[in-house]
Amino acid sequence: MRHTRNSFRLFLAACAFTFLVLFTVTLRAQNRESATDPTECSRHAVRLHSSQLNELIVKRTEPVPDGLLDKSILHGTVTVEVCVDEHGQAVSIKAISGPPAAFQSVIASVRQWEFRVYERGGSPHAVSGRLKVNFDFQPARSANTH
Predict the structure, then answer these.
(1) pLDDT of res. 62
(2) In terms of Cα–Cα distance, which of 133, 72, 145, 140 is closest to 104?
(3) Domain annotation covers residue 145
(4) Angle 142-143-145 from CA coordinates, rounded to 5°
(5) Quick one: pLDDT at residue 67?
(6) Which of 132, 128, 123 is nearest to 48 (CA)?
(7) pLDDT at position 70, please?
């Protein structure tokens, strides 16, 4: 009986470890996903300083915490590499620094942003650069709070 319990515990530990590894790999893939290949976008995009890219933002949405967010991470900054196409849409977003648990929320937020079209020589161009995105997730308030 004791051997069976130890085997079962070992089996559960192995399953939990496998789940965590697969979950982490999947989460990282989701957090770093983009609509197009970032290297492809950056090949033809005009590289801008973060201040220049910030000036092109027309509409910004704030990051909203997702269900996977670590509850201890309430505020911070995530740096993203973004490529904006000739129509002002973010077509490639990659989180490069900050709390990994907030990557998905920040990427989803930046995906909704609208950018003014960057023109050079009278024609629109794709642009790329890094942006720092601040987030401040407030803890949910209880329904009984007045």
Answers:
(1) 92
(2) 133
(3) no
(4) 70
(5) 67
(6) 128
(7) 59
CB half-sphere exposure, 81, CA atoms < 13 A: 15
Which residue range forms the structural domain that includes residue 1? 1-31
Residues 6+ apart with CB under 8 A from 71: 139
Structure tokens at 16: 């939990």
* 64 token code pair: 């909203």
CA distances from 120 to 45, 86, 129, 130 (A): 11, 11, 16, 20
Which run of H or E residues covers position 130?
Answer: strand 127-136
CA distance 113 to 76: 19
Identify the H or E element spanning 16. Answer: helix 2-31
Q: Which residue has the tokens 């890219």?
A: 53
pLDDT tens for the chain, 146 residues: list them. Answer: 666 777 777 776 666 666 554 555 454 544 444 444 555 676 789 999 999 999 999 999 999 887 655 566 678 999 999 999 999 999 999 999 999 988 999 999 999 999 999 999 999 999 999 999 999 887 655 445 44
Q: Judge if 27 and 87 occupy the same domain.
A: no
How many domains does one find in the chain? 2
